[in-house]
Specification:
mainly alpha, two-stranded antiparallel ribbon, 10 helices, transmembrane, membrane, transmembrane helix
Length: 323
Amino acid sequence: MADQKLHPSLSRPSAQSVAFVLTVTAASIATLPNIFSTIDSVATIEICTTPLFPEYLSRSSLGWIRLGFSFFIGIVAVCRCFGPMVALHVHYLKGSKLTRSLVFVGGLRTQAMFTSWSWNLLGISFAFSGLLTLYVDDSSRKYNRDEMMALPYIQWALRASILLFEISAPVAMLVSAVIKYAIWPRALASKEGNTSSLKDNLTLFQHNSNIIMSLMEAGLLGGLPIRLADIALAPLFGVTYIFFSWGMRFKWIPGETHFIYFFLDTTLGKTSTIALMALTAILMMFHGIFTLVDDFIALFGEGVLINSTIVVILSCLFCRFRD
């Protein structure tokens, strides 16, 4: 019979899972020198701070919208921390050595979920790019473009703006996809069919607004680029959370072993490794989708209407609000 009170050794990640995660980590780190040596080709004032449609949106407006997104994300994160405790129904897969249980999450622990990691990173990304855009807009009245680019902190800020969005956008898409196509259907298929924790207002904001805001940035606002050459960045963020989740397995309920995401269950053996491989592959695919957004738009012809239509269609593919 499955038992969540396992000896610690029985819930250790399998050798295959450890080998896979270490391989992804090493491969991702190996690409960093090339990423950093070529990032300046896109880390420019024009690319990072110019609206896609300057006839409708000024540079200062772009900066304020980005900051507005960041403020909204921060408010939701704070409300999550100080809001009521959430009861998570974890439905483990067949073959798991763990039993289904309620995991109560509140306070700072709400920030330990991958959804919160993704949400907060997106907020940091928008705060960074928003402040940078407003600074460039203000400085352009005093300095010319070359003088601004000569400032060392401007170049680093431009690089960070690109890199943060390259990580946060695909990760946001992964969160929305996993909720819509994996966690929500599994909750509905369970004996209780309880999806109340997924329909909480703050949860709906996080699972849906993240992908909507990311797509709006890519297709309607500033169009921060996501380069195919930087495809290892998001997986590196992902494996960081995997290491974190392994360390947290004894923390959710003291004295017991639990995972808040059924697909990270280390007691599944090879199934767990396959799940990690699938998640990594999907995350890389989502990076590719963001890379191709510009190509999709160019295929149908650029314009506010075309871009808006593509953003709405992609948002509908990843958002879910009800059973």
